[in-house]
Design goal:
The mean pLDDT is 92. The protein is elongated, with a radius of gyration of 20 Å. The chain has 3 helices and 4 strands, in the order ββαββαα. A two-stranded antiparallel sheet has the order 1-2. By secondary structure, it is an alpha+beta fold. Strand 3 (32-37) and strand 4 form a beta hairpin. Pfam families: MazE_antitoxin (PF04014).
Length: 82
């Protein structure tokens, strides 16, 4: 893993080196997700964050269960009560 030093400039801006942006598939104007993990700043693309969340949710849903179908059924049940 490559390391680089950079400075935080006025306004708290952090410059991400071009090589890192290319590796992450980031373009000027893209939105990134940042979080502090065990004392380190983690920066990733929004797409990478969404992929991780989808993976996590899939691990919580049993095989063969459709969360969408369950939600629709719940909504229909609630609508029928009105």
């Amino acid at each position: 893993m490559e390391s680089r030093s950079t400075k935080i400039v006025d306004g708290g801006k952090l410059v991400i080196p071009a090589r890192f942006r290319r590796e992450l598939g980031l373009q000027i104007g893209d939105t990134v997700v940042m979080e502090v993990v065990e004392g380190e700043l983690r920066v990733r693309s929004r797409d990478a964050a969404i992929t991780e969340i989808q993976r996590l949710v899939r691990s919580l849903v049993p095989e063969g269960v459709s969360v969408v179908d369950e939600l629709i059924a719940d909504r229909r049940t609630e609508a029928a009560k009105e």
